[in-house]
Write the structure tokens for this entry.
Amino acid sequence: MRKHEDGFTVAEVLISLAILLIVVMGVLTALEYSAWTTQQNAMRQGAVELANKTLEKARTIPYAELGTHYPDGTYGDPPGSIPTSTTVGDYTVVTSVSWVRDPVSHRATYKDVQVTVSWQKPHASSVFVETGVFGKNSYVNSGDVQIHVLDADDLSAQIAGAAVTLTPATGVTRWETTLTDGIAFFGYVPSGATGVAAALTGWMADLTAFGAKTVNTDSLNDWALLMQRESDATIYVVGAPSGSPIAGATVTLTNNERSLIYYGTSNAAGAVTFPQLWKATGAGYTVLVTYPGRDNGVASFTIPSGGYHASQTVTINDPTSFVVSVKDAATNAVVAGAQVTVRDSVNAHVPGSPGVTSAGGTASFQINQTGTYTVTVAATGYTTSVTSTNISAGVGAVTYMVALAPPTYLRVTCKDSVSNLPIAGASVTVGSTTLTTDSSGNALFTITATGTYAINATASGYQGYSGSQYVALGSGTVAHSASMVPAPTTGSLRVHVTRWWDGDPRDDVQVTLYRGNTQVATQRTDSDGYTTFTNLAPGTNYRVRRTNYNTYFGYFTVTAGLTTTAEVSW
């Protein structure tokens, strides 16, 4: 016989537990939501109370002080004592005060106060309240300022989000952000000179074009401020013709339209970038690149609009290899071991100078700058060569030929023009060199350049000699004979006799010449009253008198080689 038993199966128990769990979870969720709602409502209620309290406090502030200031100490517009943002417990209070403008005159009429109170827990939210406040401004002499911030490349485009700073003649500096219409409005600004600035990431304010501004009393001062998107230019400095980048070059960039100058130095890639550049479409920009010991590089470009990225390559000439090849002028054979110097216009050695020619007769130097260079070549047994040549940088290699000539001399021989005997001890000058003749009457001069040379010689007892001689380099020894005339040893005295009463000449008058008290000679005057005594020893004590008369005339000086005239009257 089968026995009957009552009870639950395992499956029935599990199902019952699942149902109970669902019911309990629902109850817990409802309780949690109820608590969250209660807390959120409490936060909202607290926010409303705090917002209203902030508004009420704003209404108690004197009208002139009803405005905002920022944590950094700057002021909004209108400026005042209310902080733009504060934290009260779990709340953040943001207050803004702005002008409400007349729709016709666009003048400031009253102040609008807006308060936003926000919180983050249990759920981020906020409340907003607003009120208008009327009152009388304490500024007696003031006006309103409306600034339109526009795109310099498109004057119909307003710029929103620009931070506009206004510094009035008196009072605090104010700050406003342009709205979507590109306008920053400042109410009741004290009259007088006013400073304005504007800033916006990626933009530049053209304060030069904006100029100085003055706020006029009791009026709306409507101004336009242009801003331009920042442009930049990258300058690449490379060698020519190699194209290799040049690091460390000084780059000077000049805005020719605004007279602005920027400086930079090229990096390892030969590049330097200049940010925040103004557009320049006419005279544009000029680039000057300098590098020690190298030719300058110059280029120009324009920036047609804001937001433009310019790129300009400027070349600096690479060094030129300057090879001096030295040969014998007569045989055309190479001259090894010659000393070679290459100097620039300020007499400084170029790289590689001084140098010595190789077995092939060459010496190499480096020319970094275009200019005129002096090449000096000296070698034993040859006349030193000094020449100048123009050399350009950046042309690769240049070979310069120098032909050395054997020494060239000018031998000057001084001789007596009468006896043809050599004159020793004579002083001979050729160019800037003066030598003394030897016992054979010779003076030997070294000639360093082809040309005609002036020759001057002096010697005791001889008249001076002057002559010239053409000498060509490589012509060996050129002889020049200087025939010198012996200097005269006597002089003459020419006596002119006139009548004392009318000055007419006295002819056929007998005149006696004395040296001191010693009679020298007696002669008669010619038809013109003249008579000349010759071959007289030089002296200062010559006298004349009319023969048989006791009156003497003189003293007169006689100089060797000269004729002295004595005027006498009786």
